[in-house]
Write a structure and sequence with these properties.
This protein has 248 residues and is of the alpha/beta class. The chain has one domain: 3-Layer(aba) Sandwich (Rossmann fold), CATH 3.40.50. Helices cover 33% and strands 29% of the residues. It is built from 8 helices and 10 strands. Strands 5-9-8-6-10 form a 5-stranded mixed β-barrel. A hairpin with a 2-residue loop joins strand 2 and strand 3. The radius of gyration is 17 Å and the shape is globular. The model has no long low-confidence stretch (mean pLDDT 97).
Length: 248
């Protein structure tokens, strides 16, 4: 096999499992929770390390921010033999019970982004694989994490969320934001829909675990709003979930 154009490597890694942070700077930290972690490749926004769990090779690769680069990563990783994906990232809480430092395990994503519309019509849902999701829940319980399961909003514009009032489309953004909250959406992030939809179409399994940084809705409501940039809980949950999936 020739090296894949964007991720920069071929199928020599022999990994069937991949953990996908967005930030290249988090890859080495996540890989440090594996056995025998080692640098593998770097090209564009895709930094890749390898390690082992329960005798199986596990790949950790950054996807960059947003849907397009995430979809490319899933497509090319699948071609090299990866069949199981866990996105690990950060999010902002939306539902009031979700606070900074909590873990959100996404069961599905609102497709308020553009990438997946070039895969399948918008009526098709973006949902996580049940086995991967169950492994993440089992891992969160085992590690005594404070966790939530449910729907997340997946968007393309970070500042469209945080500064909707200065956007020409601000009225639409605000109306949809309130609709998602009324429907029970837990949190907002930028990559889950692409992970779910592309994996579904390829026939791969995918899940998503997110560290909550803060919750702007709690702040608006005058509630306590702790902030947490510590992703260790989400990392340990993802790694333990891969171990559970390997053991079957």
């Amino acid at each position: 096999m020739e090296k894949q154009y964007h991720i920069g490597f071929d199928d020599s890694h022999k990994a069937e499992y991949a953990i996908l942070p967005g930030d290249p700077g988090r890859v080495e930290k996540i890989a440090s929770y594996l056995e025998n972690p080692r640098f593998f490749c770097q090209n564009r926004e895709y930094t890749t390390w390898l390690g082992e769990l329960s005798g199986k090779t596990v790949l950790v690769i950054s996807t960059g921010m947003g849907g397009p680069s995430t979809a490319i990563a899933i497509e090319e990783l699948f071609k090299t033999g990866v069949k199981n994906f866990i996105r690990i990232g950060t999010c902002g809480g939306m539902a009031l019970p979700v606070t900074g430092g909590d873990i959100v395990i996404a069961t599905g994503a609102i497709r308020q982004e553009g990438t997946t519309r070039e895969y399948v019509p918008i009526e098709f849902p973006a949902v996580a694989d049940i086995d991967v999701t169950n492994a993440l829940v089992q891992a969160a319980k085992k590690l005594n994490q404070k966790w939530h399961t449910g729907i997340v909003q997946c968007k393309d514009s970070f500042y469209g969320q945080h500064s909707p009032g200065r956007m020409p489309a601000g009225h639409e953004l605000d109306n949809k934001w309130q609709a998602w909250i009324k429907a029970g959406c837990l949190a907002s992030e930028m990559e889950s829909a692409s992970v779910f939809i592309v994996s579904q179409i390829l026939g791969a399994r995918a899940g998503c675990v997110l560290n909550v940084i803060w919750n702007q809705e709690r702040e608006k409501a005058g509630m306590s709003n702790p902030q947490s940039l510590d992703t260790e809980g989400a990392i340990k949950t993802a790694v333990e979930a891969v171990r559970i999936l390997i053991k079957g």
